[in-house]
Hints:
By secondary structure, this protein is of the alpha+beta class. The protein has six helices and 13 strands. The strands form three sheets. It has a seven-stranded antiparallel beta sheet. A four-stranded antiparallel beta sheet has the order 5-12-7-10, with no helix packed on it.
Amino acid sequence: MDTFKKNFLSEGYVAIPELLTTDEVKELQAIYNQLLSEKEKTIGLRSDLAGNTVAENEKMERITQIMRPSLVEEKLQNHHVYQKALQWAKQLLGDDMDLDFDMLINKAPHTNTETPWHQDAAYWIDLPDKRAASCWIALDNVHEENGCMWFLPVKEQEVLPHQSLSGGGALYCNSDTTGAQAVPLLAGGCTFHDGFTLHYSKGNTTNGPRRALILNFRPKQMILLEREQGMDHTGDRKKRS
Ligand SMILES: O=C(O)CCC(=O)C(=O)O
């Protein structure tokens, strides 16, 4: 077994330092900026993971999340990044992996808002086949100060109790995160994490954006099961019931 797969299976996450070329990063940055600025295009798919706790007239997005961006942007849908990431997902978890959903998570400059510790499975319905991999792709150089990812392996495949931030914000869980590792990356690098791995990122305190494109993969059969149950990752955030 190759080292990437071994690490992914034992730790619940792995870093791939160079998924994309510099040109691919530039192409994706341009598409990303367009999606961020054209708010009307992403109505219903867009929200602030920080929750809407500020007064309406002071409202500014701190952690912009856009679900399923490739549904509204054809250039994204056809981009080579989806094939590259899928090949990795197959290598890590098997040939039956397919794209379940994509999303953008942007931390604008000086918004200094952390994404709280959570497990992705807390957002999902319970499926019989638990294999899943989220590919978190850095479109800027990322480090602690602008919000690179942190990970903490979880031994059992169990979903810890989660709560939501007020105002429809992200899910979070209170857990001892001693020993968590920060994973800085250059733009074009990525990490893969599974649905149970605890993860978090600090706020962006720098002058630049922190743009991430996230692609989630799981077995084709499980995607069909999700869709049958009305789960297509476009809707409101809900806690696992
Ligand atoms: O980008 C972030 O800050 C958090 C990303 C995340 O939670 C995820 O990809 O599952």
